[in-house]
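Support request, please re-run this one:
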Amino acid sequence: MGEVNPDTAPATVVIAIDGPAASGKSTVARALAGRLGYRFLNSGDLYRAMTWACLQHCVDCHDVGAVASAAGQSRVEVGCDGNDYYPLIDGVDQRAHFRDEKVNGNVSPVSAVPAVRYILSAAIRAHAQGRQTVVEGRDIGSAVFPETP
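Re-run finished. Output below.
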C-alpha cells in the first residue's frame, strides 16, 4: 500500500537553469519547456509571492525572525496555468503583484532568509516529483536540485 511501481511511475525530469539576475534565464527556460513539452517554473516567483504575502500581513521584510515566522505559518502551493506553474501562498495567487514596487524593494531581504529558502526549495522539489519541468532561478542547480545531471 502506498508503494510506487517504478515501471509505471511518471518520470521525474528536472532541467535546472541558474544564473545571475537579468541573464536571460526565464527566456531560455520558457522556450526550452515549450519545445520539450515540459512545464516551466520560475523559482523567483515563489520568492516574490512570499514577499507579497509578508507585505500583506504587515511583516517587516528586514526582520529575519518575523519573515521566518510568517513563512513557517504559510501554506505554499504551486498551481498550473497551461504549461506555466505559479505559486499560491495560503491559496492566494499574487501574480498580479510580482512586479509591484514594494515587492521589488523587499524581495531581496525576504529571499535571503534561510527559513524562506528552505521552505520554498522544499515546495519546488515536492512539486517537481513525478513531473517533467524546466525550473529556473539563481541557485536551482547548485542548491535546490544539486543532483540533477
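Residues 1-6 have pLDDT under 50 and may be disordered. The chain is about 45% helix and 20% strand.
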